[in-house]
Write a structure and sequence with these properties.
Length: about 130
């Protein structure tokens, strides 16, 4: 139980760092790339061009000084992407947790099987 919750917490912490990192941790590659691209596209679309140019030419230190000049709409759009990313990571981690809980692994062939069966449908090993 704690290990499964730890996986969820770590995925959410990665998602807080940057959208898509939690999905990378959960090995959901298509969703990870989608969130990476969505975060980049949102930044390009909502951050005004003069601020983007200043950030590109001034380096990391300019990000903190020019971030105060961002319009409210930019903050809201970037926050919405981050929040939706975290919600998606939470849903995905819970879905993976439920899938792992409901599946049983055959001790002989190590394949997933239905927990209601008394034998493995793959290798026909009888389960105790």
């Amino acid at each position: 139980m704690i290990a499964r919750n730890r996986r969820l917490i770590i995925a959410i912490l990665f998602a807080l760092i940057y959208p898509g990192l939690g999905h990378v941790y959960l090995k959901s590659w298509i969703r990870a790339v989608t969130w990476f691209l969505l975060a980049i596209a949102t930044t390009i679309l909502v951050v005004p061009t003069p601020i983007m140019d200043a950030i590109e030419s001034g380096g990391v230190s300019v990000i903190f000084t020019d971030a105060a000049q961002l319009p409210l709409e930019a903050y809201l759009a970037l926050a919405a992407v981050n929040l939706l990313n975290i919600v998606d990571v939470y849903i995905l981690a819970n879905a993976q947790k439920n899938t792992q809980e409901s599946s049983l692994v055959c001790p002989t062939c190590r394949r997933n099987m239905d927990p209601d069966l008394s034998f493995c449908p793959w290798c026909t090993a009888v389960l105790e």
